[in-house]
Specification:
529 residues, six-stranded antiparallel beta sheet, disordered C terminus
């Protein structure tokens, strides 16, 4: 049988090798996949696209214990590139526990096959952005739907195809648009021998911090993220996609000196909101002495074979839904080919983006969760139709650890909404390797540990930006810009915002009984370590 991904590409006259350049298949038997590389781990064949980074997973003793696919780095700044990992020892009776702790501190877009203690397992990044699909029918694990199956799309009857094709709804809840292909919950590993699954995160991890601990949490986030971004940008030509909002600005601030490593910092302008984004992004970069590129939609740069460009996205993503605007108008082609492209996903947990309010009683309700997941067109008028999703959500929630209940909605979205959205989007964007460098499980824990009301008021992001890079604290966000972009921002409001942030951080210092850094520097003296 021919893998459906190959059949789909042939039918549309597009290159399979280019369309699936960053994707992979894991199985017991080989498939004919043009241009794919192969390697074997414990009898399981790993086939990968020509531009997907692949290396051996090596423990501290130098033993090869698996295969690592994708781009990622640890909180310690170690790039995962085939070098021995001192924290891992395949001979350790507690190996799997220590492996789970190690992977908890790894950020990026990746999958890993590891064999130890008589088992071979598959793990993926914390939100499944590498794409983690599987089919019991073919026995394959792969990055997207059409690599899992040898047959045409058998549309999942749980979803409404017309709504998905129109872009009014998406699939989710660990299902794909094909009823025979499922998504792995990224908080579970899967045993390759029988495709059985087991949760490894979160188990006993905490999702609450006291106010007197906030500065320590910020410090851990800043140190880890600077290490991660430094490692990735030092090893790969990298772009940062900037908007006028919180998330990309957080990445730029947390990058520290590594922001000089970006090959390009850019903003796509698809509409009027994009123009406002570009102005804010430009101001942020100017404050840091960085160059900023703007890519504007124009008919002159639209691909002549636009139908094939859109088809390539849909086949690579495994969806009948529409391609994103930057694909439809050709802006994705403005970047140099084969860059690592960083996006600010998961920093949004710092501000509770997935919640309608800080009131837990509201966002714990299953009907609201169904509405929020975009499984049905908005506004959701037919709640009877929505009820078909209730038992599925309840089953997902039942598998979660009790200590994660305090952040139940967000954990559920991480496991069932984001894994679908990014698993499709990032695989569909075939001109570069998209990833979030802020998606380690530990960074997610830290981001969710702040009080919900504090996050919901966006105070967490403001604090973190000021602590990481105070020179951009007064640069306006898109919503702080005047209606007419030729008018100056409200300087007084921006100054007051900065004063409020400084006062809030001083209060946190007093709670933690921590002296300001300037006082510590004076006390130490310039020559003291």
């Amino acid at each position: 049988m021919t893998v459906q991904a190959v059949t789909e590409c042939q039918a549309k006259g597009i290159s399979f090798e280019e369309t699936f350049r960053y994707q992979y298949v894991i199985s017991k038997t080989a498939s004919s996949l043009p241009g794919f590389k192969s390697r074997v781990v414990d009898g399981f064949l790993i086939q990968s696209g020509k531009d997907l980074k692949v290396c051996d997973l090596i423990d501290g003793s130098g033993a090869v214990i698996g295969c690592f696919l994708g781009v990622a780095a640890g909180h310690d700044g170690a790039l995962i590139d085939g070098q021995p990992i001192a924290k891992l020892d395949a001979g350790d009776p507690a190996f799997w526990k220590r492996f789970a702790e190690w992977i908890r501190h790894v950020a990026g877009r990746y999958a890993v096959v590891v064999t130890a203690r008589g088992e071979t397992r598959y793990y993926c990044d914390a939100v499944g952005m590498i794409g983690a699909c599987y089919s019991s029918e073919t026995g394959r694990i792969a990055s997207s739907t059409f690599l899992c199956t040898d047959q045409g799309l058998r549309f999942n009857p749980v979803f409404n195809r017309d709504e998905i094709e129109a872009g009014k709804a998406i699939d989710g809840l660990l299902m794909t648009e094909d009823e025979t292909v499922k998504r792995l919950n990224p908080s579970f590993f899967i045993r390759l021998s029988d495709l059985s699954q087991e949760r490894f995160w979160p188990l006993t991890e905490l999702f609450e911090a006291k106010e007197e601990q906030y500065l320590d949490v910020y410090s851990e986030i800043i140190a880890a993220e600077q290490n991660i971004i430094t490692a990735i940008t030092s090893a790969h030509p990298t772009s940062l996609a900037m908007s006028g909002g919180n998330d990309s600005r957080v990445l730029l601030a947390l990058a520290g000196p590594a922001r000089e490593n970006f090959a390009i910092i850019h903003t796509n302008i698809n509409n009027y909101a994009g123009r406002r984004d570009a102005v804010c992004a430009q101001m942020t970069c100017e404050a840091l002495g960085l160059r900023h590129a703007t890519f504007n939609r124009s008919k002159s740069i639209m691909p002549t074979d636009l139908d094939k460009v859109i088809a390539q996205y849909q086949i690579a993503a495994g969806t009948v839904g529409p391609a994103p605007a930057e694909v439809r108008n050709g802006l994705v082609k403005r970047l140099p080919d084969n860059l690592v492209i960083m996006r600010g996903h998961q920093t949004n947990h710092l501000r509770g983006q997935y919640l309608p309010s800080a009131a837990k009683g509201r966002w714990m309700r299953v009907p609201w969760q169904v509405k929020r997941m975009d499984l049905l067109p908005r506004p959701v008028a037919d709640m009877e139709a929505a009820k078909r999703f209730y038992p599925i959500i309840e089953g997902v929630v039942a598998s979660q650890s009790k200590n994660a209940n305090i952040r139940r909605a967000e954990i559920t979205f991480i496991e069932t909404l984001i894994s679908t959205a990014l698993g499709k989007l990032f695989n569909g964007m075939t001109h570069g390797f998209y990833l979030s460098p802020y998606n380690s499980r530990r960074l997610i824990e830290l981001s969710l540990s702040f009080d919900t009301a504090y996050r919901f008021a966006n105070l967490t992001t403001q604090d973190l930006l000021h602590l990481a890079e105070p020179s951009i604290t007064s640069v306006p966000f898109i919503w702080e810009m005047p209606a007419n972009l030729d008018d100056p921002p409200d300087h007084e409001k921006l100054v007051q915002k900065r004063l409020d942030i400084e006062a809030r951080i001083e209060r946190l210092r007093q709670l933690a009984d921590v002296k300001p850094e300037t006082e510590q520097a004076v006390e130490q003296g310039p020559d003291k370590p």
